[in-house]
Amino acid sequence: MSVELHLVTGDTFAQLxxxxxxxxxFESVELDEETRAAVLRPLLGESTLGxxxxxxxxxxxxxxxxxxxGYSIEFAxxxxxxxxxxxxxxxxxxxxxxxxxxxxxxxxxxxxxxVLHLEVARTNTRAQKLYAAAGFRARERFFLxxxxxxxxxxxxxxxxxxxxxxxxxxxxxxxxxxxxxHGPGAVRERRPPPAAAKAFAYDCDDLxxxxxxxGDTAQVLLPDRSVVLPRVPAASGAKYSDxxxxxxxxxxxxxxxxxxxxxxxxxxxxxxxxWENAKLRGVDFRGLGNEPGWYVEIDDGxxxxxxxxxxxxxxxxxxxxxxxxxxxxxTTYRVRTxxxxxTITIEGKTCRDTMSGEAFSSTVAVTLDERQYHGCGRALx
Length: 381
What we know:
Strand content: 35-45%
Mean pLDDT: 83
Order of helices and strands: EHHEEEHEHHEEEEEEEEHEEEEEEEEEEE
Oligomer: single chain
CATH superfamily of the largest domain: Gcn5-related N-acetyltransferase (GNAT)
Number of domains: 3
Strand order of the largest sheet: 17-16-15-14-24-23-20-19-18
CATH topology of the largest domain: Aminopeptidase
CATH class of the largest domain: Alpha Beta
């Protein structure tokens, strides 16, 4: 049995995506399809950020492995994280993971990397044995800690283009999974969208995409890229086109022409659109629950909005500095005003909405005066 690694390029990107999706479902990593494709694409080919390889045996693809580049003063040179390693269930327990790590080590050495790091859950003893057999050793004196930094997407893209390495997904490391305070060096430009700006989330037969409309332009967020289209004359509805891509909006229905394919009867999904509009407004974290319906939105460092009773009661308050406990992955906000006492607790535990069944990365508990609310939520940035 010979394990082979094949560098993922644009031509084989489609083979990678379902494997990454399977791994993320297994590990409860909360990334939508659009974001997943967007964060993987900068790693394709001989990227300055890292490498992604398909793993194959006798020509059959059985998994993938990704490493992200960094630089270490301690180790006097380049280092890398084994960011994700996934072998399909039918091929586990055959020593493939160990052989993959050996091949990755050879590839890393050829790239001038002096040390490889990886993470493993404290309770995953099987994986710990695999990594120990591959020569990895626990650094007992150290505890890996992470902190989310909310930045503009434009700023993140700029840093990535400079070749600064790829960020670890927060679901893979100790985290609070809620909005964070902003430490030294954190970048956040708080520029609220114009009042007319609005987001839509469309579902077609085999495509889901988001559109942000502002004035006479529409930004179409596709799984692999973003396109800004100017408005053009139309007999009905609102039509946007740059000559190659067309988005035609008629109320909650739309048509999209992209890459020579026409997607008709695309329908706005109100459930997804709510989250996209919250993101557009600069909300960092959103939670919700049922019976009665409620939601909370946290614009970290700015304000908290909580709406209860299916919209009957609405409270706005400045957002205090959160209390963060990295050991329990818990973030707590406590607010006391002349009229209300409010406590919001966010925990990094997988949660499913009691009505829709949708999975979220966090549980949310809210106490408003003497009333308690329980639900789910996720970070939006």
